[in-house]
Design goal:
Helices cover 48% and strands 14% of the residues. It is α/β, with parallel strands linked by helices.
Length: 260
């Protein structure tokens, strides 16, 4: 009997060893390596990050769109009126009710660090994109009311920083799903809808979707970045159009939300 137990333990140890080798091999094949910024955050602020993480991923939170201002606004505008799915059984068939009924879309417009595309040509620039994606994600977790799901709105941020955000969230125990893709045909509305359905984080309120606008801007006194409620006068002159023209439903909803 004792020999049999020893044999089973030996076989189990061998199996676990093989599984560990396979896991290490997969990590090596992926070539993923955490950026120093994330390691620094975890070393210096892990308790605070875990507290911050605990507030996210709840149905009472907001859908947060973070990144390139134009991409955020265009996606917010689509999500305000999207009716691609049946809200009861999730079939891909319109039912006359907005897909994101009762939800609040918060756009975090990163005016401080754009244009992202100019950073993709050098290793240092790509490293900055990874850091910026994490910074935007942390700002998303800090919004009042909490973040239920995060959408990274930029092909460049998604390609270079999406994995870093997912890695950070996993390491701090954050349940906020991260939607990101650099593919031009990727449907963020569908991915968000299905992820929220899978996690059961819809509000289940029947009302028109609402929108709020935040903006990341450079501080005038130093090189820091502040996240503020949206103010027209702080939009850079280089921005291609007014927010009200690019996303009228989003802009109007934000005005209404600020009056409450």
């Amino acid at each position: 009997m004792l020999k049999k137990v020893r044999r089973i333990l030996t076989i189990s140890a061998l199996v676990l060893s093989v599984m560990a080798m396979f896991s290490c091999s997969r990590r090596a094949e992926s070539g993923y390596k955490t950026i120093p910024y994330v390691n620094s955050l975890l070393a210096d602020s892990l308790p605070q990050l875990r507290t911050l993480a605990a507030s996210g991923g709840k149905s009472s939170g907001s859908v947060v769109l973070a990144g390139d201002p134009v991409a955020c606004l265009r996606l917010s505008e689509r999500m305000m009126i999207s009716d691609e799915f049946d809200n009861i059984d999730a079939r891909k068939a319109p039912d006359g009710l907005p897909d994101f009924s009762g939800e609040t879309m918060v756009s975090l417009l990163d005016f401080a660090r754009i244009p992202y595309d100019s950073l993709t040509t050098t290793a240092a620039g790509r490293g900055s994109l990874r850091k910026y994606a994490v910074m935007n994600a942390l700002s998303a977790l800090r919004i009042p009311g909490g973040c239920k799901i995060l959408i990274i709105c930029s092909p460049a941020l998604s390609e270079y920083g999406g994995s870093d955000v997912a890695n950070l969230f996993e390491r701090i125990g954050c349940d906020v799903p991260v939607v990101h893709s650099s593919a031009p045909t990727y449907s963020f509305t569908e991915a968000c809808f299905r992820e929220m359905r899978d996690k059961n984080i819809f509000t289940h309120n029947i009302s028109y979707p609402a929108a709020r606008l935040l903006m990341a801007v450079r501080d005038s006194s130093d090189s820091g970045v502040s996240v503020l409620p949206f103010v027209d006068s702080l939009v850079p002159a280089s921005f291609p159009d007014t927010v009200g023209v690019l996303a009228p439903n989003t802009y109007y909803s934000n005005v209404i939300q600020n009056q409450r």
